[in-house]
Design goal:
Layout lengths: L20 E5 L5 E5 L14 E2 L2 E5 L3 H7 L4 H22 L3 E8 L7 H24 L3 E5 L7 H13 L7 E8 L1 H19 L2 H5 L3 H18 L2 H7 L14 E4 L18 E4 L9 H12 L9
Parallel strand pairs: 1-3, 4-5, 4-8, 5-7, 6-7, 8-9
Antiparallel strand pairs: 1-2
Helix pairs in contact: 1-2, 2-3, 3-4, 5-7, 5-8
Bound molecules: farnesyl diphosphate (FPP).
Length: 306
């Protein structure tokens, strides 16, 4: 049982208390029963809610939220950061194993210098104010995306956070930064093709006869099929081997009324459930999150089967 970091007691040490029973998804369709007796779960009806193993969130609507109030866009991101902190607390309290939040996409660099700089300053502020609590709550922070390209000061703070929380065993909080799913896919393809080419000495083949070239071609084809598989490809993604193979998201939430993926987890979303809410991200509360999980709990996931 791997929930030692959260506040839930594993079923193997279940006491004869009246603690409610919580179903937590572990495999594609299987569930585990855990006893829950902590106050932090008081807002969660464990008899009617199924806890997804991995929830991913497209935190959208910060700008519109600010505009409606006559505030600068950065005030919207600041309020969005607070909503992210609340969503993380809720996910941790409820026993969700992975929470992936889309904080900055590869396309977001097109925004004004002021806004981009402001978002990374917020990231620093977030780490400075939250690291202690994240660590106390046993949250392990990771980043997906080409994040080494973000401003140096933010990068150093993030690396400190990843290092400090490295051995935590509770919620895995994955922050997507300079993340783009198409770029992630191309990166994975290139890495696998390199593995194939390493095995076949192509320059040497050019010096041989056409027949030998044909042999080399056949060998490449054979190794391509062996080396490039759905499984090996998944392991090349940011969510793959680098981060211990994060399971695909069970549920993807997008706020602000928009209903699209916007280059987020395209491969990983193959069998995800979707939840779209008109609520702007800064107004996304624990109650709204719980409401979405209730709706998710009633869905029948068949993964292509009957
Ligand atoms: C989308 O809203 C939000 C973002 C691109 C940034 C998300 C940032 C945060 C939630 C806060 C900062 C937290 C960290 C960890 C960096 P939008 O600006 O696209 O909203 P709009 O569509 O209404 O303009």
């Amino acid at each position: 049982m791997e929930f030692s970091g959260n506040k839930f007691k594993p079923s193997s040490v279940r006491s004869v208390s009246d603690a409610p029973v919580l179903s937590v998804e572990r495999g594609d369709q299987s569930v585990d029963q855990l006893d829950v007796s902590d106050e932090s779960c008081a807002d969660f009806n464990h008899n009617e809610l199924r806890v997804p193993r991995h929830v991913a969130i497209i935190m959208d609507g910060n700008g519109r939220w600010a505009k409606k109030r006559g505030l600068p866009r950065l005030a919207g991101h600041n309020a969005g950061m607070k909503a992210m902190i609340e969503a993380t607390r809720a996910a941790s309290d409820w026993g969700i194993r992975y929470l992936t939040v889309y904080a900055f996409s590869t396309e977001n660099w097109k925004r004004s210098k002021e806004e981009v700089g402001g978002i990374f300053k917020l990231l620093i502020k977030y780490v400075e104010s939250e690291l202690r609590e994240l660590n106390r709550n046993n949250v392990k922070v990771n980043v997906i995306g080409d994040y080494e390209k973000i401003p140096k000061a933010a990068l150093l703070k993030l690396e400190e956070t990843i290092e400090t929380t490295r051995n935590n065993t509770g919620l895995n909080l994955n922050i997507a930064l300079n993340y783009g799913s198409r770029a992630e896919i191309i990166r994975g393809i290139r890495s696998l093709v390199q593995k194939v080419l390493k095995e076949v000495d192509i320059p040497e083949a050019h010096e041989h006869s056409l027949k030998n070239n044909h042999d080399v071609y056949l060998k490449i084809q054979e190794r391509l099929e062996e080396i490039i598989t759905e499984d090996s490809f998944s392991r090349e993604l940011y969510t793959g081997d680098e981060l211990g193979n994060i399971p695909d998201p069970d549920l993807i939430i997008r706020t602000s009324g928009e209903e699209r993926l916007s280059n987020f987890l395209l491969w990983q979303a193959a069998y995800s459930e979707f939840a779209f809410t008109p609520v702007m991200w800064p107004e996304f509360t624990r109650e709204e999150f719980r409401h979405i999980l209730k709706d998710y709990s009633g869905r029948d996931r068949r993964f292509g089967g009957r």
